[in-house]
Write a structure and sequence with these properties.
Elements: E1 3-15, E2 18-31, E3 35-39, H1 46-54, E4 60-68, E5 71-72, H2 78-83, E6 86-88, E7 96-100, H3 101-113, H4 119-132, E8 143-144, H5 150-164, E9 168-172, H6 180-195, E10 200-205, E11 218-223, E12 226-231, H7 234-242, H8 245-249
Parallel strand pairs: 3-10, 3-11, 6-9, 9-10
Antiparallel strand pairs: 1-2, 1-4, 4-5, 7-8, 11-12
Helix pairs in contact: 3-5, 5-6
The structure holds adenosine-5'-diphosphate (ADP) and magnesium ion (2 copies).
One magnesium ion binds near residues 8, 10 and 25.
InterPro entries: AAA+_ATPase, ABC_transporter-like_ATP-bd, FeS-cluster_ATPase_SufC, P-loop_NTPase
GO molecular function, one term: ATP binding
Family: Belongs to the ABC transporter superfamily. Ycf16 family.
Length: about 260
Amino acid sequence: MATLEIRDLHVSVETENGTKEILKGVDLTVKQGETHAIMGPNGSGKSTLAYSVAGHPKYTVTSGTVTLDGEDVLAMTVDERARAGMFLAMQYPVEVPGVSVSNFLRTSATAIRGEAPKLRTWVKEVRTAMETLQMDPAFAERNVNEGFSGGEKKRHEILQMELLKPKIAILDETDSGLDVDALRQVSEGVNRVRETGEVGTLLITHYTRILRYITPDFVHVFANGRIAESGGPELADKLETEGYEAYTTKGGASA
Ligand code: ADP
Ligand code: MG
Ligand code: MG
């Protein structure tokens, strides 16, 4: 079973006012088959964690390690990360002019599997996955992310996850901007992939509402650039009623 290990990760960005440390020692282990939720206030560094693992050039790892089965993820190119079995939903946030969803998915699958999927079975696979996500078949011919609505972007992420079958998936704010129906369909997609037992998922979110549809095995509270507390699903219930205040004031300005 694949294991993603993040150890004492410190990450900085360059700002107009100099170097700013955003991640201040993140420790986290995600195993294939597990579902983890990272929850925290806006600005606590959740997306920075996702971008850093994805290898976004803006984020400089100043110390710490990220490994997948002992292999140094931070030394891998973005392609190598995908081939190693990592799916990072924010990896392709940009529009890809002239490349259809269908071609994009097949190219990605080819890169990951090491050979092109047979066209006939592939077309069927894509169609079935799109049907279960209640996506319009015409969507497959649209250009990647071009004019996608928030909901379409998220469905496209889950479609990729269903088809590419990663070992570790990091989904950042998959629930934001979704109406109730889309949230349910996207959650069902995540749950289907989860039921295979083949994927370890890191679900990053600000709101607890997606956790009504997806019950995580572990919940981590993220505050001020690190994990402040870890627990089971009951921690999400506590956050829903009490919010993040206890974590943002602790040792902060009020101390
Ligand atoms: P979250 O996803 O938890 O809302 P982010 O990781 O987006 O938090 O941001 C954490 C902090 O780092 C914020 O104060 C944000 O302004 C800052 N930050 C993130 N990315 C950059 C960047 N590229 N340049 C400057 N500051 C950044
Ligand atoms: Mg440290
Ligand atoms: Mg964010």
